[in-house]
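Q: Sequence in, structure out?
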Amino acid sequence: MSFWMKYGLKKSPWVFHVNTGACNNCDIEIVDCLTPRFDVERLGVKLVGSPRHADALLVTGAVTAQAKPRLQEAYRQAAKPCVVFAIGACACDSGIFMPGYHMVGPVDKVIKEIDPNAIIAYVPGCPPKPEAMISGIVAALKAI
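A: Exactly. Output:
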């Protein structure tokens, strides 16, 4: 990865939100990050409407069989290098939903099927607070 690619990713990551079967608690907290109280846009983080414009994916929920191909396609469409943020306990390890017949696994397992070198960051919690999401995003981008 070149210096300029890392620099651009660190300074203003554009993120695309993917819900893969969440209960929407994490989604509400992601929207809360965009409000004036937390204002992640001051850090350069911007929510975009297409994975083709995104530097990172915010994935919420345990991955269902129906959402798996859509998540993989969103990852394929995102510009590389792409950081995948697993937001919430369900995205990190499938939580209480793992025994379900319709679950295919946590986010890292699904993404690693198509790209073994994918960069995945975990923000656990049910739901994680906006402060935890912001610190997780900042820590992961510092690590790149």
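Residues 33 and 130 are 5 Å apart (CA to CA).
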